[in-house]
Amino acid sequence: MNRALESIIKDDIERCKKLTTVAGSVELFQALASKYNGYFPGFYDEIIVEGSLTPDGERDYRPEVHAVQEKLELAILAEHEKDPIYDFRKMLKDDIDKLETVCNADSGNEIEKQNLYTAITARYHSYIPQLGSGLYGYNSRIEFYEEVSGESLNYNLKKLYHKLCTFDALGCPGLNAVAEKSPSTVVTITNTNQNTNTVAVSFENAREAVNAMTSLPDEEIQDIQAKIDEIEEIVKSKDSKSKKWSKAKEIIKWIADKGVDVGIALLPLVLQIG
Question: Global pTM?
Answer without folding.
Answer: 0.49
